[in-house]
Each structure stands twice: as C-alpha cells, then as structure tokens.
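Record Calcium-regulated actin-bundling protein, 273 aa.
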Amino acid sequence: MAAFTEDESFVERFTALQAESIDEQRDVFSRRFVFSLGDRYSEVFDLATAFTAACAADEGAETLSMAGAANFLQQNGKTRTAIQRRAELKDVDLNQDGRCSFIEYLLLHYKIMILEEYFRRHEMEPDVEMDNDGVGVTGVGERLVQELFSVPQGVDPELEKMMREFSIEHAKRKAKIAELEAKVAAGGVKGMAAKNTLEQLMLEDQSSMHAIEARITAAVKKAVSKANKELAAKSIAADADAEAKRVAGRGKLAEKMAMFNKRVSERLSLGRK
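=>
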C-alpha cells in the first residue's frame, strides 16, 4: 500500500509521541477521537490504567513486549490467531523497535473506528475488510497514524476544557491510589489505615469524573448535531447553486440557438433576394 506522505513527517511525530508517557499518549488519542469515542471516552483511560499494570507485569517499562502485547489484546476482547496478532502488531510498529507502546495498542484496539474516519475524510469507499472488528486487516498502519494527526473539526474551547478537567481528575485519583498502595506495602498501623482508605476509594462512584464525562458526552452530541446541520445546509446550498448553473446554462443555450436561428434566417432571406 502506498505511503501517505513522502517526507514521513507523520511517522516522525508518531515516533516522538511514543517517547511520551502513557498518560500523554492517552490524552492525545482521546482528544483527537473525542467525537468518534462518544460515551466510550473514559474507556481509553481505563485501558491506559490496565496497560500500565500490564507493562509492570511484563518487563517494567512503559511499552510491552510483543508477547505481552498479544496477551493484552486477548485480555481486552481482541481475539486473534497468533499469526494475526503478530502481523497486526507489526503493522503499527512503524519505528520497528519490536515493542508495543500504548498509542500503538490504541491504533489496533480502535482500528475500525479510525479507518471509518479516514475513509470519510477522504470521501472514499473502504478498500479493506471493515467487518469482524478488523481481525487480520494489515497494511493500514500508516493510514491509522495519518488519521491520528489529522485535526478534528468542531472541538471548541469549552470541550477542550472539559477534557483537560477529566484528565486532571483521573490523574488525581491515580496519584492517590499510588500513594495509598505505597503505604499499604510499607505495613504497620499506617499501612492498615491506608488499606481501609484504599478500599473505600476503590468503591467510590467517582461522581466527579462521571459528571465531567457526562458533560463531555453532551458536548460531543451537540457538536455532532451542529456539524450535521452545517453539512446539510452546505449540501442544500450546493444543490441550489448547481441548479442555478443548470438554469443559467439552459438560458445561454437558448440564447445561442436564437442567435443561430436568426443568422440562418438572415442567410435564407439574402438567398431569396
């Protein structure tokens, strides 16, 4: 499949993003695809938490070995054969380091969602199999990366603010859990107290985060509705313009025919004389 860019700027940006923290990769992805994610927005944050834990259990880095990535795919409902997993992981391994960063995993996890945006933006029919959750579909890695760095339309400042707030609340909770887990590991009286606090925290309904997520979902629906109305208005305007041009074309044709008929009549009159 042809590369999407000759200067490889997208690949360079993607490689740079992989050097960032898992949380930064999470935020870049969730902001870019906020409209497509909709009420699945918080799912990306849950995946980031699970990916961090998987990395710690794998080799302790912020990336997974290919074996670890294959297991993570399976654990998150992305069932593939061993051959399919290897091929799909290799497809997004654009820096060819033989490891899987979180952003690479997200490209696989949401492959079909991203490809739908790609084909829609390019106004083209899908040329790959879009059913069955993209299982076995390869040769699309560069397209996925290109779409990641394509600017989403309609993200207003208020929605950006909500997404930042959600990230902040998530970071606060994550930091609090890490602090309590460290105290529990240290043991003693403080450790027991921390264990109780941690258990309570894990049982909390996370109302503040849920409230922000609900606002994000509402804002996304509003933005999508607005975009659809604008698209419909543009379509109506384009149809009206096309019709006006057709009418004008008919008028010009009629005018040319009238002039032609006039010249013919004049020549016939001269011939009679």
